[in-house]
Design a protein that fits this description.
Elements lengths: L1 H10 L1 H18 L22 H6 L2 H14 L1 H15 L3 E5 L4 H14 L2 H4 L7 H15 L1 E8 L7 E6 L17 E3 L2 E3 L5 E9 L5 E9 L3 E5 L17 H21 L4 E3 L17 H5 L11 E3 L15 H18 L4 H5 L7 H40 L12 H5 L1 E5 L7 H13 L5 H7 L4 H18 L25
Parallel strand pairs: 9-10
Antiparallel strand pairs: 1-11, 2-3, 2-8, 4-5, 5-6, 6-7
Helix pairs in contact: 1-2, 4-5, 5-8, 5-13, 9-11
Length: about 500
């Protein structure tokens, strides 16, 4: 029908226009196609293309990272999001539970791990503990998109294995020739034919941050790249804050404008208007020139200002209206959108609980925990597991752990679990009653409840047994057990008729 439309348009543009309008209207009525794919007036400026993820990301990655870092330095809303993830994903850290099947060996591994995670043993710079490295990794992933950790095998410390944190900026962009035949280098990472990273080209910097030498190639087994991959064709990181950067920036600009308006509105000033300017004096100064008396360039309104105007001048008040009440609602809307873009509730990022009750706060916490759980899973799977396995191998090689058949089945001795730090309860009584009901109805086991509280269930039972035994020794009733005095055998009155 395109040829007929062209003929009609040549003869009568009006008829062609009406024809096209009716066609579009019939299409809307029939419901054919997708509204979001319609190219009409409402979507005229919506231009989008389909490209591989790396092509889309590579031209925006550095700009997004720079802007995210700028907001990290200057925006309280951005820091509200970053700190929410930091305190809920890592918090007080994770407790290792080795699962080798040998209780004595498990205790040795866990004790050695606690010692190694100190800053003098796990960090090659000896500045951050393992928990601090994890917190930094979570923040850098949200702001920068990712972070690199290089495995360093150096003498000194508890083990010859340490970690060095590297920023994604240190991936070289100048290397084009791969180290191995058939590979490709994209964004400082060398990939094989299956797009699997086989090595990383890292720029070398001095302490001032200037490049010093040619980039150095490190095999993939020595580098841990912690980032999120959302598309199969994605090769490198993108800031997790990307969907929310514009909203955070709008909030900052809006707050600055409202703050300036309120500061001006709070100023009390007195302007003196004269029929003719006083000779030699203006504003109490004898050194003002005629140019100073006739120009207001550079003048500003300050609290308590008393100033003289030029002859014939008049003061005009510009009052845009009081928007402080509307500002609160608008800022809440922006912050809700920022939180929603990051999978979090408004309350978790703003710390504003004025509109919540127990039920809504509990529901919000449940939804937020689902978001944090994804991050915890990624953190453990991509970073912590590999660090632990390398730690265990290094401990065996260094003779810190004696496992005769370790090399026969290494995976058997690498089995482990991470117990997260406990979270505070909103209403301890309600939470405790819920756990009691879940335990009695077999919905949860004691092991699950202990893990939710950040405790090792075996250690918790041992602690309970120690407390009960000590209380029993002292004759104190505790933990549902009878005291020693109550357990004394009582004499039957019939056996003692004299009493």
């Amino acid at each position: 029908m395109a040829w007929l439309d062209r003929i009609i348009e040549a003869i009568s543009p009006r008829a062609a226009y009406m024809r096209e309008g009716w066609r579009q209207q019939l299409g809307l009525i029939r419901g054919s196609g997708y509204d979001a794919a319609d190219g009409g007036r409402l979507n005229k400026n919506w231009r989008a293309t389909n490209e591989a993820a790396d092509i889309t990301d590579r031209y925006s990655r550095d700009t997004l990272r720079a802007r995210a870092r700028d907001l990290e330095r200057n925006s309280d809303i951005a820091n509200g999001v970053l700190k929410a993830f930091k305190r809920n994903v890592v918090g007080n850290g994770f407790t290792l539970q080795a699962k080798t099947g040998d209780d004595d060996l498990d205790d040795q591994i866990e004790t050695l791990w606690r010692r190694w995670t100190r800053r003098t043993n796990c960090d090659v710079t000896q500045q951050q503990s393992f928990n601090e490295l994890l917190r930094m990794a979570v923040v850098r992933k949200k702001a920068d998109g990712g972070i690199l950790f290089k495995k360093c095998y150096t003498p000194g410390g508890l083990l010859p294995f340490k970690l060095q944190a590297l920023e994604v900026d240190e991936l070289s962009r100048s290397v084009a020739s791969p180290r191995y035949k058939g590979d490709r280098v994209i964004g400082g990472i060398e990939y094989n034919e299956y797009n699997r990273p086989v090595g990383y080209w890292i720029e070398q910097y001095n302490i001032d941050g200037w490049e010093t030498n040619q980039p150095v190639f490190y095999p993939a087994k020595d580098i841990i790249f912690y980032y999120s991959k959302s598309r199969p064709s994605q090769l490198r990181e993108v800031s997790d804050l990307a969907p929310s950067l514009s909203r955070i920036r709008d909030a900052n600009e809006f707050i600055a404008a409202v703050s300036m308006k309120e500061r001006i509105a709070a100023c009390f000033a007195l302007l003196i208007k004269r029929a003719a300017p006083t000779g030699g004096f203006q504003g109490g100064s004898r050194n003002n020139t005629d140019k100073d008396r006739t120009s207001y360039s550079g003048k500003m309104l300050t609290p308590g200002l008393i100033s003289e105007m030029n002859a014939g001048d008049d003061a005009v008040t510009i009052n845009p209206g009081n928007g402080s009440s509307e500002a609160t609602g608008f800022l809440k809307l922006l912050q809700r959108l920022v939180g929603a873009g990051q999978g979090l509730s408004y309350e978790s990022t703003s710390r504003d609980m004025s509109e919540t009750n127990y039920s809504s706060a509990r529901q919000g916490m449940i939804e937020d925990d689902l978001t944090y759980t994804e991050e915890v899973e990624l953190l453990q799977g991509k970073l912590m597991v590999e660090v632990y396995e390398t730690f265990l191998i290094s401990a065996v090689l260094a003779g810190k752990l004696t496992i005769p058949d370790f090399w026969n089945d290494p995976q058997k001795y690498m089995e482990h679990e991470w117990v997260a730090s406990p979270k505070k309860w909103i209403d301890p009584q309600k939470e405790a009653n819920a756990n009691k009901t879940a335990l009695e109805s077999c919905v949860k086991s004691f092991k699950q409840i202990s893990a939710e509280q950040g405790r090792d269930w075996k250690e918790q039972i041992d602690d309970m047994a120690d407390v009960v035994a000590y209380a029993k020794e002292k004759g104190v009733q505790i933990g549902g057990y009878k005291s020693v005095q109550n357990e004394q055998p009582q004499t039957d009155p019939k056996e003692n008729p004299d009493e």
